[in-house]
Write the structure tokens for this entry.
Amino acid sequence: MTESDELLAVRCQLGEPDALDTLIARWHPALWSYVRRVTGNPDAAADAVQDAWLRILRALPGLREPARLRPWMFSIARRVLMDRFRAQYAAPAFVDVEPADLAEPDDRREAALAAEELHAALDALPVSERELLALFYLEELSLNDLADVLSVPVGTVKSRLFRARRLLRERLVREKE
């Protein structure tokens, strides 16, 4: 039987080392998956998740609503991503292309191609839409949790989710033509 996130958060606030290990083991894969989907780069995701965990562990004693642990952690991870994107866009851009990236893809099964097309279409979306779809579908955050993470009303989350789905659908249809 697994304990609730609320109890786990309280145990972490009390300084129990086993609780911190459990927290990290339980939530690291989900945070990494979310950050990886938004960044599109495993190395950048690993750095960002490490930074997010540092911020989470530093801020954990001040968590006022332990029952809201999940959206609280994802909002911290989101702030880490936004800080990194701001720094990235402020830096001068350069392109580093690997010869392997220019090679033609080999024939794969239909399912693998469909998944690849979906991932490519997701990666081509603007960051805000990609982030929203990753949090809603891949991390299964509720609309209320998304509203907390994004600091916007639930109605805004719904309209942004509608727009993100539409953009993804348009990209997939355009690629098939």
User: Anything to note?
Assistant: DSSP finds nine helices and no strands in the chain. The chain has two domains: 1-94, 99-177. The chain has a mean pLDDT of 83.
